[in-house]
Automatic annotation (TrEMBL), chains A, B:
Name of this chain's protein: LysR family transcriptional regulator
Keyword entries, A-Z: DNA-binding, Transcription, Transcription regulation
CDD domains, alphabetized: PBP2_LTTR_substrate (cd05466)
Segments forming domain HTH lysR-type: 1-60
Length: 309, 309
DNA sequence: TTCGCGCGATTACGAATTCCGATGACCGCG
DNA sequence: CGCGGTCATCGGAATTCGTAATCGCGCGAA
């Protein structure tokens, strides 16, 4: 009842060769097969595609028209095949990972680009969130894994160090008297207007204790959980913030911020990988994790202090 | 090895329904069949088109891409089917007819238009020629039929009257003092500069004898076998010609010629249909002949003289 | 004219494919 | 834990497909 591609292939061959026999050879079939297929078409359409008299086969007007249309079909089929071939190679499957904004700002994009390139037929979904929400999702095994700030162990969640990144001081280029990139000594810091995350955020505690134990005066404290808002405020005012270096490697608005790693002593942030304890990382998850780790290392290298000697 | 349209149909249905079972119902197949077809595709491409986990099928990126390409294939196939459906109805076959210029000037075009409309899948070829050549081709059975001026019987050729058309006097609108269309009496004709066909043409004899037996003076005689040239010459000079009315019903350059049927007595030309004696007219040939005859009658009516009373 | 020769149509039969129905595994839900 | 839904799988039936052999026809050579 319904047409098949073989009909069309053989018809096209017969049309182009002007011979059933030649068409059969070209298409690795037999003259009889070609004849049958074309007869099937003619019966379905209730009209003849070829005129067979005088020993030669030559197309009728309907055959001419059908031939041109059939070329489109074959071209489309070829295109479909080629389209899908672009997805071969690489791993397959689905992947959902949770990342905190610290990771999504600089590291995610290049890792994602390499991942989709290497595994075109993998479906990946990234959810951005803070540690509490991400940990919860990992517990529920709704995420293959997540990257969060180092925390205490949690039931049902397996964790290990993902990377360590220096915390950096971020200030406006117009108000800070420092050169971008060079380490800043704590004793050189005057009284600061400091933007910090809320107490729900793990980093808040370490930042406060760092400033306290190094005797740095804090002129004012502003609690802000919005990362984009923090960066904007810092860029336009005398407020400064302490942020993970891994997210400040590339400034989307160059020249707006001055970024200086905290040195003497340094303050670092540990990012840990958490995954559902009951599962093991899928090959796809491992692949993406590897890429994330490579990109994280590349970005962290930006803040490597040249050692003396 | 090679893809089939059924693969594509079922894949598309499964993609759109997001369910093998629903796809099977839609395509009048079984869930098992759908599953097998899609597995076949996936094995050929060596990648998965659907992700089957958690009880639902959802397309992979490759599946998405393949789906879009498959729509093009199905559209193209539909277009091919519809294209050929435009040719159903009417007769089929091949037809070669021979016509003299007398027929091709006014009668052929409308007959051809109606013919191709009514029999879209028929292949028709018209060869233009003069009676000798056409008769020869009919003898050789290379033509289904031909229309030629009435002649004596010829071996191997069956003939019968096709139509009778009045001969008309054609002159330049600038040199003739007559109104277009009205009959001209022989005695009103002064000495003429007359263009005639060569002696090979059947009409030459009848034209000469007509002028002789009606005592019309011929100032000069010009032998011209080129029909287009004759018309052009007549349109631009004092030369006149006698031509079959059936070919002068529509003047391609209106206002150039004055055309007057010869009356008192009238001169007419008999056109006869000739066909190979050993064959009978194919249905296609009959159909075209009928149309030619209708159009000839319509054109001849242009010269009907309103009868008194 | 007659005789091959080439080409397509037709037929019958064996092979391959497709299709179907039943069964099994899996998941979410009650 | 059973229930209803899904898809995968399997074996056999039905269909399609390819093949070989044969026939008819037109053409060209003898």
């Amino acid at each position: 009842m319904a047409g098949s591609l073989q009909d069309i292939r053989l018809f096209v061959a017969a049309y182009e060769e002007r011979s059933f026999t030649a068409a059969a050879q070209r298409e690795n079939a037999t003259q009889s097969g070609v004849s049958q297929h074309i007869r099937k078409l003619e019966e379905r359409f209730r009209l003849s595609l070829f005129s067979r008299d005088k020993g030669r086969v030559c197309p009728t007007p309907a055959g001419d028209s059908y031939y041109r249309a059939c070329l489109d079909v074959l071209r489309a089929h070829d295109a479909a095949t080629k389209a899908v071939q672009g997805f071969v190679g690489g791993l397959e499957g689905e992947l959902v990972v949770g990342l905190m904004p610290t990771m999504t700002r600089c590291v995610l994009a290049p890792a994602l680009a390499r991942f989709t390139e290497a595994h075109p037929n993998a479906a990946i979904r990234v959810v951005e969130g803070y540690s509490a929400a991400l940990t919860q999702h990992v517990q529920a095994a709704e995420l293959d894994f997540a990257i969060v700030p180092g925390t205490a162990g949690i039931a049902g969640v397996k964790s290990r160090l993902f990377t360590r990144t220096p915390e950096v001081l971020v200030a406006s280029v117009r108000h800070a008297g420092r050169r971008n990139g060079e380490p800043v000594r704590t004793r050189e810091l005057g009284p600061l207007r400091l933007v910090v995350p809320s107490r729900a955020n793990t980093r808040r505690l370490s930042i406060e204790s760092y400033f306290a134990s190094n005797g740095i005066a804090i002129e004012r404290l502003l609690e802000l959980d919005a990362m984009l808002g923090t960066l904007d405020l810092v860029g336009r005012s005398e407020w400064v913030a302490v942020l993970p270096g891994i997210m400040m490697a590339a400034d989307p608005e160059p020249g707006m911020h001055v970024i200086n790693p905290l040195a003497d002593p340094p303050l670092t942030l540990d990012l840990v990988l958490i995954e559902p304890a009951r599962r093991i990382l899928s090959p796809l998850a491992s692949a993406f994790l590897g890429l994330l780790q490579e990109e994280a290392a590349r970005v962290n290298a930006r803040w490597d202090v040249p050692r003396p000697g």
